[in-house]
Automatic annotation (TrEMBL):
Residues 22-258 form the Xylose isomerase-like TIM barrel domain. Pfam families: AP_endonuc_2. Keywords: Isomerase. It comes from the Bacteria. This is Sugar phosphate isomerase/epimerase. The keyword Magnesium does not apply. GO terms for molecular function: isomerase activity.
C-alpha cells in the first residue's frame, strides 16, 4: 500500500504554519510535500525553516520537497501565473539562476529531514532533442550531487511537455547512467490529451516510480482537482501501484482555492485516500 502524502500546494496562497501541517496529518498523511515557494514556504528564512523542522521532529510524519518553480518571493503569484524557473532554459544565465534557487530550497534539508526532491525539467513549450537531453542530464547530475550529501533523493516529474514523457525520461536515465535517480509520476499530467495515459506510464516507468502526484482533470487542462472529479481512470492507478515492487509515496497535489479551509481539505483528503486504497478490481473471466 502506498504511503499517504499531501502537498502543501493546496494552501499555496497562505504562509505555511504548524496548524496546516496538523490538518494534513489529521487527514491521514504520513508524509508532507513542502511546495517551495517563498511566499508560502520561505526556504531562505532560517527561523521559519527551524520552526518547521521542530514540527517534523515532534510528529510521526516524513517530508519531501517540490522544487521552486516561481522566481523570488512570489508577491504577485496567482494560480494563473506560469512557472518562471526552468532548469533547462535555452539561456545559460537563466539556467544558472534556476539552479541556484533550487539549491537554496534544498538547503532546508540541513534542518528538515527531507526524503526526496521533485524536479521539473522544462516548460510546456520545451521540445525533445539532443541539446535538451544534454542540458537535462547536466541539471540532474548537478542537483543529485548537491542533494545526496544532505540525504535527499532526486526524482524527476512527468510534466505535460515533450521532454519528460515516460519514454524520454527512461532514455535520459539510461543514457546518463542515472541509476540512483527515479521518477515522480504525475497522474493528472498523464491524463491530459496526447500524453499517453496512466496505464502506459506505469508500464514504461515501472519500478522507477517512487512517488505519485495524485490529482484529476477533464483531459484538456491541468486542473489539479480532487481524485474522482475528472476523467482519470483511478482503477488503472490502483492497479499500477499494486504492481510496483515497493510501495510509492502517493501525494495529493491539489490546486489552491480561497474557500479551502483546513477542515474541508482534511475531509476531502481522507475521502480521496479511502478511494485510492480500495481493492483493485479483478478482470472478469
Amino acid at each position: 500500500m502506498m504511503k499517504r502524502s499531501i502537498s502543501t500546494h493546496v494552501f499555496l496562497q497562505q504562509r505555511l504554519h504548524a496548524g496546516l501541517l496538523d490538518a494534513m496529518v489529521g487527514a491521514g498523511a504520513q508524509s508532507i510535500e513542502l511546495f517551495a515557494a517563498r511566499h508560502h514556504f520561505d526556504y531562505v528564512d532560517r527561523t521559519e525553516v527551524k520552526e518547521l523542522a521542530k514540527w517534523f521532529r515532534s510528529n510521526d510524519c516524513r517530508a519531501t520537497l517540490h522544487q521552486p518553480i516561481f522566481d523570488g518571493r512570489g508577491a504577485n503569484w496567482s494560480k494563473h501565473v506560469p512557472p518562471s524557473i526552468n532548469l533547462i532554459d535555452v539561456e545559460k544565465t537563466r539556467r544558472i539562476d534556476a539552479m541556484d534557487e533550487v539549491k537554496r530550497a534544498l538547503e532546508a534539508a540541513e534542518q528538515i529531514d527531507i526524503d526526496s526532491i521533485v524536479l521539473h525539467l522544462g516548460t510546456q513549450n520545451d521540445t525533445w532533442n539532443e541539446r535538451t537531453l544534454d542540458i537535462s542530464m547536466t541539471a540532474i547530475e548537478h542537483i543529485k550531487a548537491f542533494a545526496a550529501p544532505l540525504g535527499v533523493k532526486t526524482l524527476i516529474e512527468t510534466l505535460p511537455n515533450d521532454v519528460t514523457t515516460p519514454e524520454h525520461l527512461m532514455e535520459m536515465l539510461r543514457i546518463g547512467h542515472l541509476d540512483s535517480v527515479n521518477v515522480c509520476l504525475d497522474v493528472g499530467h498523464m491524463n491530459l490529451h496526447g500524453m499517453g495515459g496512466v496505464a502506459s506510464a506505469f508500464e514504461i516507468l515501472g519500478d522507477r516510480i517512487k512517488q505519485l502526484h495524485l490529482h484529476d482533470n477533464g483531459g484538456e487542462k491541468d486542473e489539479h482537482c480532487w481524485p474522482g472529479e475528472g476523467t482519470v481512470k483511478w482503477d488503472e492507478v490502483r492497479a499500477g501501484i499494486a504492481a510496483l515492487k515497493l510501495p510509492p509515496t502517493g501525494t495529493l497535489e491539489i490546486r489552491y482555492e480561497p474557500e479551502m479551509d483546513a477542515k474541508t481539505m482534511s475531509a476531502n483528503a481522507a475521502k480521496a485516500f479511502h478511494m485510492l486504497e480500495q481493492p483493485v478490481p479483478q478482470p472478469q473471466s
